[in-house]
Amino acid sequence: MGAALGPGQTPLMTSLELLGLITAAMLLQMALGIGVVLRRRQATSRALRPGTVSPSPGRADKADDTASAWAGWREFRVVQRVLEDLQGAQCSFYLQPVDGQPLPDFRPGQYLTFRLDLGTGAVPCAAASRTLTRCYSLSDGPSPAHYRITIKRMPAPAEQPAERPGLASTHFHDHVQVGDVLRVKAPAGHFFIDPDPDVPVVLIGGGIGITPMMSMLRWCVQHQPQRPVHLFYGLRSSRDHAFKRVLEDLATSAPSLRLHVVYSRPGAEDLLGRDYQHLGHVEVDLLRRTLPHGRHQFYVCGPAAMMQTLVPALADWGVATADIHYEAFGPASVKVPGLPGEPLTAAAASFEVKLQRSGRTLTWNGQETSLLEFVERHGVEVASGCRSGGCGSCETRLLEGRVHYPQAPDHEVAPGHCLLCVGRPASALVLEA
Fold this sequence. Notes:
Residues about 1-10, about 35-65, about 120-130 and about 340-345 have low confidence and may be disordered. Helix content is about 25%, strand content about 25%. Helix 7 (about 305-315) links the parallel strand 11 (about 295-300) and strand 12 (about 325-330). The chain contains 8 helices and 19 strands. The strands form 4 sheets. Strands 4-3-6-1-2-5 form a 6-stranded antiparallel β-sheet, covered by helices on one side. Strands 10-9-8-7-11-12 form a 6-stranded parallel β-sheet, with helices on both faces. A 5-stranded mixed β-sheet has the order 14-13-19-15-17, covered by helices on one side. The protein is an alpha/beta fold.
């Protein structure tokens, strides 16, 4: 029993009351902690949600930033060139806006569209200069000061040495110098990283397909340092190895990154375990052996041979279609049931496609994934750039009929026109091509 209270004394706090105050304080502290975690997770989730932009270091997440992307063409000055591999075939170009205004953020994995004016000397037998539209992946994380692209010089095909080398890549390597001004469209593209920090990421780049992976990797390391990232980079040897020192430094400094470099033809000076971790190619068997069990988000970008084998193999392995994201460069097409880019089935309706300028009447039967592939297979040449609905190079007058887009293109299609690279017939067509 407690001691009796004297005159004028008030009762001391009981043990039960003290316990209640302590409990209330602990609950308040827990609630504040949970609120902070939820706000951080919501900010990360907002970072790459469609219609918004990803936050850059030191920049407030303000509404002004989300509306700062520009329409049409904007002038950028080349402020730096950096060769990224030993043989000098891959060059990074750092770009700053001529108007000096801050740059909008982008979703890591997206690309820039360029309009290039080539002189007559760049096009054999050309009587006048030629304008090309080309798209190149951003190869760095978002920055308010500059963008970076990395371009590989494309030689003539080894099996067809008489063919011309890549016009646009040759132009960049041989003619675009520091101080030059280029016309550029705002970042675009549907190939970008999912911001969910709870799902580990597998980035797979083949050759110059490493460029969008560098953007995704940089963003993850900076904004989600605890998120597991597995990078598989397939190439021939150390002579083709772009960003070699950068990747090795990141693998050392970022504990959540697992780097898997795969050489198919290592040179005599290349050392297994130092320069590369695996011999051969990036294949599903390698992924099976090296990835931990559980769900992953896969992002794949590379040449035709990689895309046409690896992406379907991931689906066959049992990876959910929602977890497979890919972007092919060049004319590669990927045909995987249930994935974007799936061709129409054999049971789909056939449509007559008339090409007015070419004087051809063809029959669409769903074998190709797009009208561009369809006309090319029949020997009809059409200007094209990104082949993914971003640049508008293949925009063609639609004289009759309807064209369906499985995924809305980034390029704003003019009335009475269609984009061949991502369009499919929804009826009989008459095209100006």
